[in-house]
Design goal:
The complex is a heterodimer of chains A (107) and B (119). With 107 residues, chain A is mainly beta. In chain A, a hairpin with a 2-residue loop joins strand 7 and strand 8. In chain B, 0% of the residues lie in helices and 51% in strands. Chain B has no helices and eleven strands. In chain B, a hairpin with a 6-residue loop joins strand 4 and strand 5. Chain B is globular, with a radius of gyration of 14 Å. Classes of the chains: A mainly beta (107), B mainly beta (119). The interface between A and B is medium-sized, with 26 and 24 residues.
């Protein structure tokens, strides 16, 4: 199975900050990497698919980049509603796998 | 408008079989390329993919759970059913169904259903 390792596991930031979360795959997955946001008690929501494509309705302050084994999710100008947990997920091969999550907390 | 909703028992006993139903609308599982997946999340822990079923009936399972899982579909009812045998307290968590969209992403999710395994 492909392992996805996110860093950091947790992150403190303030409204207005720019933050970056990294996801590293244990083998090349081309650009088959997706990002999700999960707020407490809620289902995850798709943010980015195909490493860099913004899902419909997602604010443009979210962006993704990378290919192969190294990927990043960047949030520009953090808003209060962005404090949540973020997961990466690979769709290159079965079984699908997720990263362990990055919890973004307010400083 | 795409929606999905999970239903099933909130409590099951150890060794029992769990059966969950995903009822969806806004798309059809008889359309080429459409797929629906099940994902779970133990309390306070990360997401774990369990299985998915394709429009043509192909099925795919988690490596570690494949001997316990079965996924099926009823296209006429817009249902996808997941069964998991020999339930254990470690299987406690929220179970989600999701549609698979572009690039294999999970583009629409149900609200989730919490399943507790306890005697």
């Amino acid at each position: 199975d492909i392992q996805l390792t996110q860093s950091p596991s947790s992150l403190s930031a303030s409204v207005g900050d720019r933050v970056t979360i990294t996801c590293r795959a244990s083998q090349s997955i081309s650009n088959y990497l997706n990002w999700y946001q999960q707020r407490p008690g809620k289902a995850p929501k798709l943010l980015i698919y195909g490493a860099s494509d913004l899902h419909s309705g997602v604010p443009s302050r979210f962006s993704g980049s990378g290919s192969g084994t190294d990927f990043t999710l960047t949030i520009d100008t953090l808003q209060p509603e962005d404090f949540a947990t973020y997961y990466c997920q690979q769709s290159y091969i079965i079984p699908r796998t997720f990263g362990q999550g990055t919890k973004l907390e307010m400083k | 408008q795409v929606t999905l909703k999970e239903s099933g028992p909130a409590l099951v006993k150890p060794t029992q079989t769990l059966t969950l139903t995903c009822t969806f609308s806004g798309f059809s599982l008889s359309t080429s390329g459409v797929r629906v997946s099940w994902i779970r999340q133990p309390p306070g822990r990360a997401l774990e993919w369990l299985a998915h079923i394709d429009w043509d009936g192909d099925k795919f399972y988690s490596t570690s759970l494949k001997t316990r899982l079965n996924i099926s579909k009823d296209t006429s009812k817009n249902h996808v059913v997941l069964s998991m045998t020999n339930m254990d307290p470690e299987d406690t968590g929220t179970y989600y169904c999701a549609r698979i969209g572009y690039s294999g992403s999970f583009d629409f999710w149900g609200q989730g259903t919490l399943v507790t395994v306890s005697s």
